[in-house]
Amino acid sequence: MQYVYADNNATTRLAEEAFEEMRPLLQELYGNPSSLHFLGRAARENLNQARERVARFLRVSSAEIIFTSGGTESNHLAISGLLNARPDKRHVVTSEVEHLSTRSFCEKLEKDGYEITRIGVDEDGRLDRNELADSLREDTALVTLMAANNETGVTWPIRQLGQLIRERDIPFHVDAAVAAHWTELDPDRDGIDAVSLSSHKCHGPKGIGALYLRRGVRLSPMFYGGKQERGRRTGTENAPGIAGMGKALDVADARRDEDTRNVKELRDRFEEELLDRVTECVRNGTADERLPNTSNLSFAYIEGEAILLSLSKIAICASSGSACSTNTVEPSYVLRAMGKPDSLAHGAVRFSFSRYTTGEEIDYLIENVPPVIEELRELSPYWQKQKLKSR
Predict the structure, then answer these.
(1) Which end is more exposed in the chain, N or C (fewer Cβ atoms within 10 Å of the end residue's Cβ)?
(2) 266-271 contacts: CB < 8 A, separation 24 or more?
(3) 3-class secondary structure, 66
(4) Helix-strand-coil split of the chain, %, nearest 5
(5) CA–CA separation, 214 vs 186, rounded Å?
(6) Bridge pairing between strands 294-299 and 115-119
């Protein structure tokens, strides 16, 4: 065992099946999918097959799938497209704990004159459904919510929320980047108009994503200059990446129940041992309504960044939260929204596992994380002060 990778909500290892699917398009069938010669047609055929796979993953029509560069672009394309479909409405509903890509885009919309309502969460990260219902208005153009939080793994009842939003005839966008591998979505059943997917969160390659957009919804493209993706997302398609994503989602769909059962068992064992062995250690997020692979733990009175650096020295890869915001020393805005005090918010570490996580790796974490916490606390003046108070 060279290292323990416990940062799968940031990115995942490429599945062997996806790699093999990509290989011919990188080395042999490397034609431009828009070209008319035989290499171009072969690339186009593989691209179409991948589109069918993504559509099957979401139980939708392949004509409703748009390939993008990843989750961020999918989120922005969905939000802008749905807003452009209702230019007379200037109110958007979202949550306090959305991924930074949606959060930042909503801040931009505010500067452009939109009114943004941000729904809060409770101390366990659960969305307030009553607050959501009360926020919906005649001029609401869009509701955009994540299916599961990328930091805590807390899942929301998307089907119930979708039915509530559909009753008000309001478009509903779901960011499923981190949830798609673990949560079965059905846009027709769940009242969803747009779904964002990210390949590299599901054991596919980086740099590729997809957007489901319900048929009939108008969309203003972000890029211009070609007819690719029916003019909705121009530019030469990333055929190898698209093929890899399609295969990765195929595998994820087939293995969802098995992966969920195995990973949850490993995650629960890890979490139970840490909570038992480390004092002043708390779980962030509800115990049950969350992704099976995610454990967000706060270690009081020490800094998450110091924990991560110490863990890295002993070949453990984890995260202090979203990979898109790790260059800031501010505590997670997700934990802030959950009402966590500074003593806990600053010491949060996210451990996220995958189908490739082994029992041996969990054993290594259980044996080596507690001593790291103990060593750092001995160096922390805040911890020493707390020890004096408790005497």
Answers:
(1) C
(2) 266/353, 266/357, 266/359, 266/362, 267/292, 267/293, 267/294, 267/295, 267/351, 267/353, 269/362, 269/366, 270/295, 270/351, 270/353, 270/362, 270/365, 270/366, 271/295, 271/297
(3) strand
(4) 45, 15, 40
(5) 12
(6) unpaired
**pLDDT digits 0-9 by tens, 211-259:** 999 988 777 776 777 777 776 777 778 999 999 999 999 999 999 999 9
Structural tokens at position 260: 């969920």
Which of 175, 121, 181 minimizes the C-alpha distance to 143?
175
**Tens digits of per-residue pLDDT, 168-182?**
999 999 999 999 999
Q: Tokens 């961020």 belong to which residue? A: 72
d(CA 286, CA 149): 12
Looking only at the bridges linking them, the beta strands covering 4-5 and 316-317 are parallel
Contact partners, residue 314, CB within 8 Å, separation at least 6: 368, 372
Q: How big is the chain, counted in residues?
A: 391
pTM over 0.85: yes
Q: Which are the catalytic amino acids? A: 324
